[in-house]
Task: structure prediction
Amino acid sequence: QFQLVESGGGLVQPGESLKLSCVASGFTLERYRVGWFRQIPGKEREGVSLISMTGSATKYADSVKGRFSISRDDAQNTVYLEMNNLNPADTAIYYCAAAYTASSTYTSFLTHEYDYWGQGTQVTVSS
Result:
């Protein structure tokens, strides 16, 4: 069974940090680009960050540039999202997703291109 499992969410105060993990099971992430998305109830899911198949290319939403950092460890079959200087606008359910790709550098937030999705982890930023 192909599965993605997110962890690392929680409740933090503004200015604090969290590191999310996305672990794949049943398949290897080596041929996949991986994205982090977030969703607030009643709003569309938005792309936050993604990393290409080889890790040579990354992409960030404007709202998180300079604060979030994505990385991957294919030996651990895991992708990370380090989130710093969090603010209440970052409150959402965060999902990771994997898209099979033949390109080592292709990056896209188009959700229909992603083959597998995790169940999400809640991030709440509040004082």
The two ends are 40 Å apart (CA to CA).
